[in-house]
Amino acid sequence: MHTVVVGTSGTTPEDVIAVARGNAKVELSAGALDALAKAREIVDALAAKPEPVYGVSTGFGALASRHISPELRAQLQRNIVRSHAAGMGPRVEREVVRALMFLRLKTVASGHTGVRPSVAQTMADVLNAGITPVVHEYGSLGCSGDLAPLSHCALTLMGEGDAEGPDGVVKPAGELLAAAGIEPVELREKEGLALLNGTDGMLGMLCMAIADLKKLYTSADITAALTLEALLGTDKVLAPELHAIRPHPGQGASAANMLAVLKGSGLTGHFQEEEAPRVQDAYSVRCAPQVNGAGRDTIAYALTVAERELASAVDNPVVLPDGRVESNGNFHGAPVAYVLDFLAIAAADLGSISERRTDRLLDKNRSHGLPPFLADDAGVDSGLMIAQYTQAALVSEMKRLAVPASADSIPSSAMQEDHVSMGWSAARKLRTAVDNLTRIIAVEMYAATRGIELRKGLTPAPASQAAITAVRAAGVQGPGPDRFLAPDLAAADAFVREGKLVAAVEPVTGPLA
Prior knowledge:
single chain, 3-stranded antiparallel beta sheet, mainly alpha, 513 residues, HutH, 19 helices, 2 domains, elongated, Fumarase C, Chain B, domain 1, Fumarase C, Chain A, domain 2
């Protein structure tokens, strides 16, 4: 099994996904263990001094003015974890919790937190044992870190609270640690605070959303090409020279993808052979590269932010190489929250243009010769009428999810923490948006492939035919009388979600961007 080595210089989005989704093993580098030990020496030296140091010998947040005597400091660290593990609502997905734990370990291993090497090793051991703390939906404001979610993870390290075992069964965390041969940690100065103070949850969800959206945007290019073909549109608008004069990288990539899918099509170019010749295709068809491409460029920007955050050590206070322990505001989630919201906006617009193309395929007044709703016997059959309703409902929710969470703030901790990022909320709604977008693209694919098959006497592009053949082999049925539609839509969703649409066409087109 693949092993991810955690060092002092950050990590990659691919590493996050390998641990979160692929159950990759985690190993601390020798450099990380050395950095942990050196930083701990600094914390221990400060703890022995009479002067108060935030997080080492004081309370937290609005209670930071109280100096805590040495005999109460272990209790202080336990108490911050127990009191902050205050999440409510449904359980968060396993992959999100694993990303959360891994990214906190990444920051701990940077040597800027003052956590003992033994605590970091326990964090790695829990991940490697497949033990996943129970984390709840609500509890993070995206400032001072993802406090409640990270607290539930720290609670598991202490052998308290509930966690899911490698078999998927939820049990008391102490039982799971004992079964795996892992000793619960006894937290010392600063360690409880250091385990809670990061943007790890929102960052983990950002990394996974970027990976998912990259695949979806390629699928969206393919479905847009299939719809253009089904509508007998023109591929001349995809010519490289047209996109070179507006050199947004994503736009050029999307146009190139669509052109590759349509190569050799016998359906394109008929738009001027009708009774009322079209001079040009509708915006939803003609402007697909511009909209898809803008989303691609948004993903690229979000990836830049994610990579910067992955190279960061987010904690408060932090241990600096010169021996100082300094308070700071690096835990504020604004950089991550903004791009999470930005991605939700781009995804909503992609869903919107996809739905408009689907509606055009189903409307006999705009589909250029296709039967109403792509039905077998329109009137007796309703065809894909209600599939578009479902798609429209998903698009409508996407628009609601595009309202930025990061534009909101609510004061907390007796006004000490008076401006927060809401980055966790931005990440949670983006995950829903990505799920919805997958379904929206699947509906367009379903309609477009049916539309192409209804163009009797015209030969689709080889890549389009490969897509249709693969879709049908996956259990998504073609044209015919009305039938129970939900299973077809579920199969189409799975086909897109699992990357099979891209896999079907790339043997013909070559690798797509």
